[in-house]
Amino acid sequence: MKPTERPVLCLGEALIDVIKRAGTVEEKVGGSVFNVACGVASLGHPTSLASWWGKDERGKNLEAKLASAGVSVVPGSANAQKTPIANAQIDDNGQATYDFDLEWQVPPLPEVSGLSHLHTGSFAATLAPGASAVVEAVKAMSSQGTVSYDPNVRPTLMGTPEEVRPRIEELISLADVVKASDEDIAWLYGKDTPIETVLQKWKTMGPGLIVATRGPWASYALCANDRDMLAVDPLNIKVKDTVGAGDSFMAGLISGLLDAGLLGSAEAKQRLRKARLSDIQAALHRATVTSGITVSKVGAYGPTQAEVAEVIAADPTL
After folding, report:
1. How far apart, in whole angstroms, are the C-alpha atoms of residue 211 and residue 213?
2. Is residue 266 a contact partner of residue 176, using CB atoms and an 8 Å limit?
3. Which residues partner with 86 through β-bridges?
4. Is residue 313 within 8 Å of residue 230, measured between CB atoms?
């Protein structure tokens, strides 16, 4: 950890993934923003999580994982009636589909002046009653530091694309970094809309960096200050499942941008707005490696700095 850093605050869901595959059922701690928090902390950055879970056994499991990853918990996060559940069905290709049993509220949040960066995403900003508090936190942080956002759409919780698109685009306009999957983009804008068209649209809304992940295909990255789009190949690795892959990518990206001085302060916000693709390549590389390590494991997994360094040392040409 870097104790002189102000912490990253991750604001969003923490839940239990009930993973069903080939006739077996397994419970693992998870949730998009929970996974990002664990990932950022494992990569060496002071990190806090504000979420909403219960004081039951599942909630204790969440807290144990957070403690082992070095994530601090914002007081009040354990005040739900019960800990949320995401039922994850894994198909023969390792792809996960979800349905949920949860409620979402936001505990009292720390002052933004004590934070370096805010990350949020998934249904946290769209599901009442907590969604409004998330948007207000993003607005407050955007004026003093930096914000990252991953729409991570969950149709069973978000309604229709038409209903949720204005809120998602509002958050994109407030964020410094936006990461979305090709599946997110297809759901929001239709399968026939090219990803490149959507990224260019989002670029005009204000983010400094936009990334689209595309599963086994190259990710796309677009900077506000660069006309070109960068394609970043994923690791060539045997996939166990894709649970947490996008969250691990997000954690690696946040970590890399923090270390590059492109996130974490009002000054970093301005540097990111002026950055070129060459300035963010190292962060994209870290994100690709962290995500690759995650899909080689079962369930969400946040690699450590040492694991990432080991992969890069084994093949510096990655």
Report:
1. 6
2. no
3. 17, 100
4. no
Contacts of 126 (CB under 8 A, 6+ apart): 157, 158, 159, 164, 167, 168
Cα atoms in the Cβ-side hemisphere of radius 13 Å centred on 192: 0
Per-residue tokens: 175: 């964020």
Question: What do you get for the CA distance between the two ends of the chain, in Å?
Answer: 26
Euclidean distance between CA atoms 279 and 208, whole angstroms: 12
pTM to 2 decimal places: 0.90
Sheet holding 146-150, edge to edge: 71-73, 47-50, 8-11, 117-121, 146-150, 177-181, 209-214, 217-223, 229-232
Rounded to 5°, the CA angle 62-63-66 comes to: 90
Taking the C-alpha atoms of residue 45 and residue 258, their distance in angstroms, rounded to an integer, is: 9
pLDDT digits (tens, 9 = 90+) for 257-300: 999 999 999 999 999 999 999 999 989 988 888 777 755 555 55
Average pLDDT over residues 175-198: 96
